[in-house]
Amino acid sequence: MAGKAAWRRRAERGNVSLIFALLSPVILVLLAFVVDIAAVDLKKREFQGAADLAAILSAQNLSDYENVALLNLAANGFSTRSVDTGGAASDADLPRTKALVETGTYVADPDIPPAERFVPGDQSVNAVRVTASYDGELFFAARLAAPPRLTARSVAYVSSQAAFSIGTRLARVEGGLANDILNALLGTNVSLSVMDYEALLAADAALFQTLDTLNTEASLSAVTYGDVLQSDVTLAQLAQACASGMPAGDPARNALSRIAADSGARNTSFRLGEIIDLGTLSPSRLGTIDGPYAARVRALDLLAASAALANGEHQVTLDLGADIPGIAGIHAALLVGERPQFSPWLSLTDLETTNVRTMQTRLLVEADVDGLSALAGTRVHLPVYLELAAASARLANVSCPGGREDNGTVDLLVTPSVARLRIGEAEPDALVSFRKDKPIRPARLVDTPLLDVYGKASIDVGGRTPQLLRFTAADVTNGTIRTVSSKDLAASLTASLVGELDIRVKAAGLSLASPSQVQAALSTTLEPVAGEIDEILATVLSIAGVSVGEADVRVNGLYCRHAVLVQ
Fold first, then answer.
1. Percent of the chain scoring above 90 in pLDDT
2. What pLDDT, on the 0 to 100 scale, is given for residue 377?
3. What is the pLDDT of residues 4-59, one digit of tens each?
4. Is pLDDT larger for residue 134 or for residue 23?
């Protein structure tokens, strides 16, 4: 029995040895595959990491994006040749890595499928995509399987945004004219001096700090800047929020506080979100945005834009008095329209599709001009009617080399306003609503028992061709305003109109003069005051935020971020 048991044990050991001998090659092959698979997986992760780093660094250096990407791949052990150029590295053998480096536009929109958010191209470049392939190696299984081809794709995105606005800059104010216009626009009854207005023109308010203060001033309990923009506030609360950010004793602070204390300002409410678009910064929590390149706005511009929003399409009637030499009296009626829908006054964006626009405007200025001896001292009634389309500005490019604001530049495409100026009588409805488009009749320029003179004239000013403006980082911090003017802008609009006058003379009983003589007499009478009427036109429109044949734009803020991996 003992012999049989020993024999049985020897037989079992022999079977195990035999099985091990038979399976050893298979085990070795499997081990080889495991080692190779692990090595390939490690290489794949290294390759993807190298592609990610190449995309990030090339997005940070868009001016030399391809060279930066290829050099970084090579530095990480993946010597490359570009699919674009077909160039090879300096190695004797053909590199095993191929790479396609593309610039394009990445839109961080959750409504767009991730695979479609990057669009290759050379317009509005804000991202780089690196698509690379690598011929891998098998150490033990090279005779049994083909080497794998590893692929990697990375998209890096640089978030560079600019805040920009459009309007007009009022260089100076004359007497009580600005007082009358601004009070009519704001719905207030505040008496401000020329020094007060000059202080307001020079006063910049930090936009985000103002919104922080407005949240407290209006008791909003908002959490984000977007919450503040979508809340109802009054003009008084906004003026006080602007004033709070200015030093004590600042004349602008005192002027803003007086506006805030006016009963009309307390009764004027609106939502800032209709004129200010903060884009991706809207969800930012209050108190989190600051710095030298954070958006700043001129306090007077912000108040005027807000008042226009609060009042909607409305008419302002002004009696400008008779303080101008040669002019017996002058009256103005201004119809301010609403901004086009989805077109704010200030926008913060990186998208070329975003436009900011001024308001559509109509203005009638009626001047009674003292007659000269050529017209026997007869007073001349001169109605100048102006229709002004909206000027616009669009973001063309934001560049932030190295992700730094101090090296940044912003390009804007600006289209000045198109205006039609006429001498003629406007229908009353024309200055009530933009929905009413009434013809302009010849105006009665001279009205006497013996002589009636009717006249009309029309000129068009402005163009629809956008002009490119570039702003540097220094322009942003200095609050630089740049102006785009139409090439056909005349030195004197009123004088140009008078030169185009087409007149008709009616005499009661006898003819006192031929039309050419009357026209010459009118020109002699009106030309000395043409510059004064131009000044009134420009001032009224400037305070309303528009100007004839021009557009004033400003880059209010610049926001640069380091490149981040998005795919």
1. 15
2. 60
3. 555 555 555 556 666 666 666 767 666 777 776 777 778 888 888 888 998 888 88
4. 134
Place of tokens 């048991």: 5
Interatomic CA distance for residues 98 and 41, integer angstroms = 19
Contacts of 427 (CB under 8 A, 6+ apart): 436, 438, 439, 440, 441
C-beta separation of 96 from 55 below 8 A: no
Same domain, 128 and 183: no
pLDDT tens, residue by residue, 138-161:
766 666 667 788 888 999 988 888
514 and 461 inside one domain: yes
Provide the whole-model pTM. Answer: 0.75
What is the per-residue pLDDT for 556? 92
**Closest of 410, 414, 396, 411 to residue 560, by C-alpha:** 410
Which of 415, 340, 411, 424 lies closest to 381, judged by CA?
A: 424
Domain range for residue 325? 161-554
| Token pair in block for residue 508 | 């009661």
Sign of CA dihedral 172, 175, 177, 178: positive
* DSSP states along 45-61: HHHHHHHHHHHHHHHHT
Which has the closest alpha carbon to 232: 274, 278, 188, 186? 274
| Residue whose tokens read 């009427």 | 533
Tokens 């001292």 -> residue: 377
* 458 lies in some domain: yes
Sign of the four-CA dihedral 496, 497, 500, 505: negative
**CB-based contact 543:185 (threshold 8 Å):** yes
Tens of pLDDT, residue by residue over 462-504, are: 767 888 999 999 999 999 999 888 765 556 677 888 888 888 8
Total domains in the fold of the chain: 2
Q: How many CA atoms lie within 13 A of 8 on its CB side?
A: 5
Q: Is residue 567 assigned to a domain?
A: no
How much of the chain exceeds pLDDT 70, in percent? 81
**Taking 80 as the threshold, does the pLDDT of residue 534 lie above it?**
yes
Tell me the per-residue pLDDT of 220-271, one tens digit each, with 9 for 90 and over. 988 999 999 999 999 999 999 999 988 888 888 998 999 999 888 888 888 9
SS3 for 507? strand
Is 559 part of a structural domain of the chain?
no
- Written as six digits, the tokens of 435 are 């929905």
Residues 138 and 227 in one domain: no
Of 390, 387, 329, 333, residue with least CA distance to 359: 390
Q: If we measure between CA atoms, which residue out of 415, 405, 414 comes closest to residue 557?
A: 405
Instruction: Classify 306 as helix, strand or coil.
Output: helix
Looking at the fold, whether 21 and 144 belong to one and the same domain comes out as: yes
Residue 498 burial (CB count, 10 A): 22
What is the 3-state secondary structure of 350-410?
CCCCCEEECCCEEEEEEEEECCCHHHCCCCEEEEEEEEECCCEEEEEEEECHHHCHHHCEE
* Same domain, yes or no: 417 and 435: yes
Q: How are beta strands 127-135 and 314-319 bridged, if at all?
A: unpaired
Best CA proximity match to 127, nearest among 112, 154, 105, 109: 105
- Please, is 445 exposed, middle or buried when counting C-beta atoms within 10 Å of its C-beta (0-12, 13-18, 19+)? buried
Same-domain pairing of 114 and 215: no
Structure tokens at 7: 């024999």
Residue 563 forms part of a structural domain: no
Residue 304: phi, psi to the nearest 5?
-65, -45
